[in-house]
Amino acid sequence: MTANWANKRGVGAGALLAWAGLALLPLIGFITENTSFDYYMYMGQSMLIYAIAVLGLNLLIGFNGQISLGHSAFFALGAYTTAILMNFGGWPYWATLPVAAVVCFLAGLAFGFPALKLEGHYLALATFTLAIAMPQLLKYKAIAGWTGGVGGVLLDKPDPPEWTGLSADQFLYYLCLFCAMVLFWLVFNLLRGRSGRAIMAIRDHTMAASTMGIDIARYKTVAFGISAGITGIAGALSAITVAYVAPDSFTLQLSISFLVGLVVGGIASLPGCLIGGAFIVLVQNSAQSISDWMKGTFALRYDVPAWAIYGVLLLALMYVLPDGIAGGCARIRAWWTTRGRREAQ
To answer: Is residue 20 included in any domain, yes or no?
Structure first.
């Protein structure tokens, strides 16, 4: 029954099981009573937040064909919008999320419209400068009273409702999971509709899409705005879960991490966004652990830099799965299905 319903909706049963598993994960904390479980819940929050950011970038690059290296700027804008509203306006955390989305959407429109004449590496260079400039703008003395300058803004982590019986980190995990599910569902339905087909047609062949009557400028600008809005929500969730924002947290390296997560997970793949978010968190932490293990095991005189191990792992993964993990899984599934049909014949 569930599989038939999923197929009618265009949603795989595997995707439903994955979301169900993510929803039940925090309940393990009640069974294990492990004091370190909240740390894993924090890692889960980070994975979902990065998955949302990769989703926004994927909509722009994977489905619309526009290249961006500056999405850390929209991530920062969403985080600071939430921080300012909570710290100075006394807003509840949940009310800041739609405001952050709207602010970043408008910022995406404002940047995307002038950038319509830029394509390929020219657009990448323009967004690169945006990522470089944002941390410096947040430190500007004229607005330091709002942004906290170099020191940033410290927030109060929201307490979970008493009736839930959840810890703070478990509750925030569910908040991130709920936002991720809503955003993935919205993007999934957007791509299935007329607007989504127009967005992807522009990616596949701009001239042919224009000949068919698609307003290239409008769809490119709106796609940039929606992408920025989604990334802004991820930034707002980051501010809420970490309870602190600072300019140096939103550097170019963060934009590169989003791009790496997108490529590793799979470009133009919605499940790949979840994989990319997990990759950003797990592999970076694993690289440091491998570095420490190598030094202790082999009695190395010098440390092996974690970034070097991270680079080697990334190169190996790209060599084995050039179209990302989601693409590799799709190829394996297609091979298995073809093999089954041949055996049946």
So the answer is: no
